[in-house]
Amino acid sequence: MLKQERRKQIMNLLEKEGRIVATTLSQTLNVSEDTIRRDLREMDALGLLQRVHGGALPRSTSAVDYKERKRELMDVKHSLAVAALPLIKDGQVLLMDGSTTNIQLVKAFPKNLNVTVITNSPLITVALAEHEFVEVVSLGGTFRKESMVTVGQSVVDTLKQIRADLCFLGVYAIDPKIGMSIPLLEEMHIKSQMIKSASEVAAIVTAKKLNTSSTYTFSSANSLDWLITEEHVNETVLNAYREIGIEVITNK
Question: What is the annotated role of this protein in its UniProt record (predicted)?
Answer without folding.
Answer: Repressor of the lactose catabolism operon. Galactose-6-phosphate is the inducer.
